[in-house]
Amino acid sequence: MAGSTFSVFGADIRIKGDVTASADLHIDGHVEGDVTCTALVQGESSEIVGAVKAESARLSGTVRGTIAVRDLVVLKSARIHGDVHYDALTIEQGAQVDGRFAPRAAGEDATVVSLAAS
Q1: Is residue 64 in a domain?
Q2: Residue 18 lies inside a defined structural domain of this protein
Q3: 62: helix, strand or coil
């Protein structure tokens, strides 16, 4: 893979089922199913209902499900409902996360965190 390949799901797209991409993925629409890709960029108005697995993710919409990402950025408009497993984590002030955070290697050492910064 050259690293320049990406797929875009526009705001008008609604997918019911799992999504697997060997490329980078930009989601502005609604996905009901698990999302697995190399790098994920999620738009503010998008919603993912299912697990997210990626090397890197930049989330700014709603995610309802477990997230397992090596390098995770949660932007201020993000609303996450589910457990988050990460290697590196950045959360902007204003993001809302309702779930447990745990480094991916730690497994059971999850601490419950509920953020509602304004």
Answers
A1: yes
A2: yes
A3: strand
Q: Which two tokens stand for residue 68?
A: 């397992």
The total number of structural domains that make up the chain: 1
Give the CA diameter of the chain: 40
Q: How far apart are CA 94 and CA 96, in angstroms?
A: 6
Residue 62: domain span: 6-116
Question: Residue 96: which H helix or E strand, with range?
Answer: strand 96-103
pLDDT at 118: 37
Does a structural domain hold residue 1? no
> CA distances (Å), 40 to each of 11, 27, 50, 54, 110, in order?
15, 8, 14, 7, 24
| pLDDT tens column, 31-72 | 999 999 999 999 999 999 999 999 999 999 999 999 999 999
